[in-house]
Task: inverse folding
């Protein structure tokens, strides 16, 4: 808790110095300033079953999606290597320009 860790004393000193800076007639050494602590009211916690389902199912879905995609990509790379087909960066740039050119027309 804040009172046990020493944070409350630092917070009180900062608050009093800021009040004294804004209000010149306020003297923190002569005035009795008390601090009251109250626990912050938290709403009741409800256990949601959907959170448990997502914690279990989401990693499995991500894993299954990679299991489908990665072999396909590997197969394409192997076919590229077998056929000695290589696409240079110039070809990639040219295809990108050609594909996006209709978007720039007015």
Result:
């Amino acid at each position: 808790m804040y009172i046990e860790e020493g944070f409350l004393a630092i917070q009180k000193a900062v608050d009093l110095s800021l009040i004294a800076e804004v209000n010149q007639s306020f003297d923190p050494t002569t005035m009795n300033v008390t601090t009251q602590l109250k626990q912050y009211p938290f709403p009741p916690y409800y256990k949601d079953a959907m959170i448990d389902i997502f914690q279990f199912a989401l990693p499995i879905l991500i894993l299954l999606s990679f299991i489908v995609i990665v072999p396909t990509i590997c197969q394409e790379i192997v076919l590229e290597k077998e056929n000695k087909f290589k696409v240079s960066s110039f070809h990639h740039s040219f295809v990108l320009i050609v594909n996006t050119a209709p978007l720039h027309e007015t």
Remarks:
- DSSP finds four helices and no strands in the chain.
- Residues 19 and 25 are 10 Å apart (CA to CA).
- Residues 1-42 form one domain.
- The longest helix spans residues 49-82.
